[in-house]
Inverse folding.
């Protein structure tokens, strides 16, 4: 039988995967149960999908994922309670279309967090409470989101307090991407330092881990893990994938790599990158309390068509036929 990620890492950390309702039947469901010990709803618990209108919640997809997890003995990470994306306009406006006040928005945020965290209390062990509150490029510490504009910087601590009140046992995470970029890492570090100093109930930092075969380096990754651990926080890799395209380079050059072919060279580099990442994760097992992949297999990944329309990516450990790739063997054999 094929070895499994969950078996190989049982003395280290749970290995999770982002899923939607479409993954819960057929060959993908089998692969999830065989390989992973945790799931994260890819979209189903975000504000837009779960709370499309005031006082109307759509629980169906989120319930299906949590039920599937329970039935199969998988842990669940909740994702995400407060984010600038996939959040409906109604949240920030009143019935006449006018922007709501700080108090109204705080009330809505509290009500939302109470309802969602409360519904799954005891069944979700960790929540991404605030997602991507720090911008990449600008000098600003805080992303200029509607939450920030209307409430001010304390929307972040409020979100953590509401989540903690709704489920005191859940581990609460601040989650972000590009955390190996030193300028952004510094900003996130200072934000978390401030929160922990104020005794805000934040327990961990999620490094999304949307990486590539060129990035991060071992040193960049270790710096992140060590620095956040220094605040007494757990670290989880929450959205791991290793694109075969050079992300940072493309961003800087503002020019996509013009290929959709998985070359033997890419396969080799991807295997080496995944080995390096998991070597590092194992080494930091006292700090690192979870690693979650963002999607099941290369058959469909959110990186198909993103950031480059029409371009296929191959960022995961299972191929388009759900078979283990070379990188999989690099990760399970150590
Ligand atoms: C992505 C999903 O994978 C897509 O299906 C959706 O269209 C957009 O969001 N950072 C996050 C995740 O925190 O929620 C995002 O998920 C990927 C980037």
């Amino acid at each position: 039988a094929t070895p499994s990620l969950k078996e190989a890492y049982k003395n280290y950390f749970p290995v999770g995967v982002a899923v939607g309702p479409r993954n819960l039947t057929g060959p993908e469901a089998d692969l999830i149960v065989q390989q992973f010990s945790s799931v994260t709803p890819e979209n189903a618990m975000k504000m837009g999908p779960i709370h499309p209108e005031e006082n109307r919640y759509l629980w169906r997809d989120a319930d299906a994922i949590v039920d599937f997890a329970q039935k199969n003995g998988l842990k669940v990470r909740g994702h995400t309670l407060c984010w600038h994306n996939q959040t409906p306009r109604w949240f920030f406006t009143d019935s006449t279309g006018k922007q709501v006040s700080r108090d109204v928005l705080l009330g809505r945020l509290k009500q939302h967090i109470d309802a969602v965290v409360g519904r799954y209390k005891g069944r979700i062990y960790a929540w991404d409470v605030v997602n991507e509150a720090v911008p990449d490029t600008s000098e600003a510490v805080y992303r200029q989101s509607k939450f920030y504009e209307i409430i001010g910087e304390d929307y972040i601590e409020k979100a953590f307090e509401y989540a903690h009140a709704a489920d005191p046992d859940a581990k609460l995470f601040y989650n972000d991407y590009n955390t190996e970029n030193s300028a952004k890492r510094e900003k996130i570090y200072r934000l978390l330092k401030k929160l922990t100093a104020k005794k805000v109930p934040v327990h961990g930092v999620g490094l999304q881990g949307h990486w590539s075969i060129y990035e991060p380096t071992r040193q960049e990754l270790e710096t992140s893990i060590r620095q956040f651990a220094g605040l007494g926080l757990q670290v989880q890799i929450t959205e791991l994938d290793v694109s075969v395209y050079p992300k940072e380079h493309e961003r800087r050059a503002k020019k996509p790599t013009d290929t959709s072919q998985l070359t033997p060279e890419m396969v080799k580099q991807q295997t080496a990158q995944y080995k390096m990442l998991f070597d590092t994760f194992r080494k930091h097992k006292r700090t690192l309390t979870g690693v979650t992949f963002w999607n099941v297999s290369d058959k469909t990944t959110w990186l198909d068509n993103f950031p480059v329309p029409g371009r296929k990516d191959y960022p995961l450990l299972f191929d388009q036929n759900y078979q283990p790739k070379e990188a999989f063997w690099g990760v399970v054999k150590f």
